[in-house]
Task: inverse folding
């Protein structure tokens, strides 16, 4: 029997015909607490006036995250993932000795959400678009340090999958590169049983409502370096290092988390074992079904190394043809799907603007890839409906 949490709406079925039930499956179904679970704490916030500015629940949320990840430095939370990433890059750029107006190049996958690339460009850094591999993560064998101007590498935990973090560490060390992980979609992912921070990297995780674990809007940075951690605390508060005159040592932005988001995050964190366990069970069903179709040569799935625990934010499939007809087919069955991620080097703003390396795999998949819904709370009949709908596409 499935536990009933807010955000789970089993009433998504409607009668389509005399003997068939047509369901509606949105692309995401945010996992959220019930109002009753947070209302008295929120009432207290309103009464006290402590609603933002490093207030008690935001601090408690950071402490609980530290307990969950077991990291020595307390994670810092922000109002969203993109600004967390922006500040993390900003802090590393400063640490490497570069001022806000300086620039260098950064190896980054083209195949990601545009927010990854924007966080670099708004820090006055220049992306060098690199390829991904069959795991849909940065292909480390193809990311080449072909210029002394390259000082940083940003890898993305696409769909919760991770690059080989040991290999990444060796590459970064041999080439003297700062490493940042955009793990926006990879809350709870592990490589060889360890979280990303345990490999010494700085990572950002998004808590957006669409993500594995959410606080409605939010994001966090987990770092191993005390100086970077301290800079992140100042940067989210306009760069202020003292609050009497409001003097600043870097141009930070206001990206503090509000109490209402912290409260939702705290409640969801109490259920984190359920969230990750449920996703793992659902993903196993998807892998079995889609593995069968892959065996027939009808599509490809994301290659996940046996060393990676992947919580699967969406379930990406790569068709043998442009995904347009498949998207229309699924939409006609009330199933939301996304053409996601995307090849950023071909987006309007980025086209022709920055350097790119060999992008042959990205080019080959960018129009054929589609993300399917995979929710934390999902009934067996919803999954069956999705699988039947996919099967019907190939039966055409
Ligand atoms: C890879 C990646 N980076 C960055 C972001 C930005 O996170 P947020 O939506 O919390 O700002 C996202 C979220 O969609 C993402 O998928």
Result:
């Amino acid at each position: 029997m499935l536990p009933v949490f807010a955000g789970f709406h089993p009433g998504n079925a409607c009668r389509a015909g005399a003997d068939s039930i047509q369901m509606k499956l949105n692309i995401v179904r945010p996992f959220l607490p019930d109002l009753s679970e947070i209302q008295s704490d929120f009432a207290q916030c309103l009464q006290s006036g402590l609603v933002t500015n490093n207030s008690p629940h935001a601090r408690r949320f950071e402490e609980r995250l530290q307990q969950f990840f077991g990291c020595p430095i307390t994670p810092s939370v922000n109002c969203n993932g993109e600004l967390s990433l922006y500040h993390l890059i900003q802090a590393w750029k400063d640490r490497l000795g570069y001022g806000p107006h300086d620039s260098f190049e950064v190896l980054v996958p083209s195949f990601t959400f545009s927010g990854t690339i924007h966080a670099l460009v708004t820090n006055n850094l220049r992306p060098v678009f690199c390829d991904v591999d069959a795991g849909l993560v940065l292909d480390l064998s193809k990311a080449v340090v072909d210029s002394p101007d390259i000082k940083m590498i940003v890898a993305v935990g696409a769909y919760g999958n991770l690059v080989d973090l040991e290999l990444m560490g060796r590459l970064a060390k041999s080439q003297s590169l700062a490493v940042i992980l955009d793990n926006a979609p990879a809350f709870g992912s592990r490589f060889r049983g360890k979280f990303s921070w345990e490999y010494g990297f700085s990572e950002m995780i998004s808590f957006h409502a669409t993500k594995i674990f959410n606080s409605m809007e939010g994001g966090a940075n987990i770092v191993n370096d005390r100086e970077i951690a301290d800079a992140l605390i100042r940067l989210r508060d306009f760069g202020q290092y003292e609050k009497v005159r409001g003097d600043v040592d870097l141009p930070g932005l206001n990206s503090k988390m509000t109490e209402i988001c912290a409260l939702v995050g705290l409640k969801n964190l109490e259920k984190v074992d359920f969230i990750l366990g449920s996703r793992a069970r659902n993903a196993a069903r998807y892998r079995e079904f889609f593995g069968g179709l892959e065996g027939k040569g009808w599509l490809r799935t994301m290659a996940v190394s046996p060393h990676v625990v992947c919580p699967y934010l969406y379930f990406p499939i790569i068709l043998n043809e442009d995904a347009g007809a498949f998207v229309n087919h699924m939409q006609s069955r009330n199933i939301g799907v996304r053409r996601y991620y995307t090849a950023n080097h071909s987006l309007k703003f980025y086209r022709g603007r920055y350097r790119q390396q060999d992008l042959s795999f990205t080019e080959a998949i960018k129009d054929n890839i589609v993300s399917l819904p995979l929710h934390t709370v999902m009934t067996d009949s919803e999954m069956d409906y999705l699988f039947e709908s996919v099967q019907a596409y190939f039966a055409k």
In short: The two ends are 35 Å apart (CA to CA). The CA atoms of residues 145 and 234 lie 32 Å apart. Residues 6-19 have pLDDT under 50 and may be disordered.
